[in-house]
């Protein structure tokens, strides 16, 4: 008699649990229709930002490609007639990128920035390779007023030596002689 009571109790408990979950809403979210809000510091697609004056920020210093643990960034440096360095070509293989953000941390000019946009999957791995024109944007990204050439102390056609932010004019060492 006790065994029969335990069997009926177990069956009723099972049916009660099933009935309780039948009238609940779904626990899953339909991804393309509902996009969960991401944290503000989430990292995904890489962009190449521009200076506040609209020119290219990247100086092709190779620090991002050296910092990349999966070796997915490659570029070729060049210099324009004003003496300003730029990347003649810049390429990121998003098929290999692990979105670690080390390239963004290594960039001295704040040219490389990671955005929260993560929807760029493709079945063809060759379509995951992004060229420079695919990555460039016409805004400054997170640092709206930062201009590397204002702080670098590198003389160019626009700013001579000593003409940068917080930089003293060059000293003639011959005036220090006794």
TrEMBL record:
GO terms for biological process: aerobic respiration. [4Fe-4S] cluster 1 binds at residues 58, 61, 64, 107. It catalyses: a quinone + NADH + 5 H(+)(in) = a quinol + NAD(+) + 4 H(+)(out). It is found in: Cell membrane. It is a peripheral membrane protein. Coiled coil: none annotated. Residues 48-78, 88-117 form the 4Fe-4S ferredoxin-type domain. The keyword Translocase applies. Its EC number is 7.1.1.-. Keywords: 4Fe-4S, Cell membrane, Iron, Iron-sulfur, Membrane, Metal-binding, NAD, Quinone, Repeat, Translocase, Ubiquinone. Its cofactor is [4Fe-4S] cluster. GO terms for molecular function: 4 iron, 4 sulfur cluster binding; iron ion binding; NADH dehydrogenase (quinone) (non-electrogenic) activity; quinone binding. InterPro entries: 4Fe4S_Fe-S-bd, 4Fe4S_Fe_S_CS, NADH_quinone_OxRdtase_chainI. Belongs to the complex I 23 kDa subunit family. NDH-1 shuttles electrons from NADH, via FMN and iron-sulfur (Fe-S) centers, to quinones in the respiratory chain. The immediate electron acceptor for the enzyme in this species is believed to be ubiquinone. Couples the redox reaction to proton translocation (for every two electrons transferred, four hydrogen ions are translocated across the cytoplasmic membrane), and thus conserves the redox energy in a proton gradient. This is NADH-quinone oxidoreductase subunit I.
């Amino acid at each position: 008699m006790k065994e029969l009571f335990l069997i009926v109790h177990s069956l009723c408990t099972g049916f009660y649990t099933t009935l309780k979950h039948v009238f609940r809403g779904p626990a899953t979210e339909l991804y393309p229709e509902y996009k969960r809000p991401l944290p503000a510091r989430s990292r995904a697609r890489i962009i190449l930002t521009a200076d506040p004056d609209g020119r290219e920020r990247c100086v092709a210093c190779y620090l991002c490609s050296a910092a990349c643990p999966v070796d997915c960034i490659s570029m070729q440096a060049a210099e324009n007639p004003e003496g300003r360095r730029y990347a003649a070509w810049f390429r990121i293989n998003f098929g290999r990128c692990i979105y670690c953000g080390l390239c963004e941390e290594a960039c001295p000019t704040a040219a490389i920035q990671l955005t929260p946009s993560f929807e760029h999957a493709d079945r063809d791995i060759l379509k995951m390779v992004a060229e420079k024109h695919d990555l460039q944007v016409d805004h400054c990204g997170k640092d709206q007023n930062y201009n590397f050439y204002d702080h670098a102390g590198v003389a160019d056609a626009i700013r001579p030596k000593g003409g940068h932010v917080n930089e003293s004019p060059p000293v003639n060492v011959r005036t220090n002689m006794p």
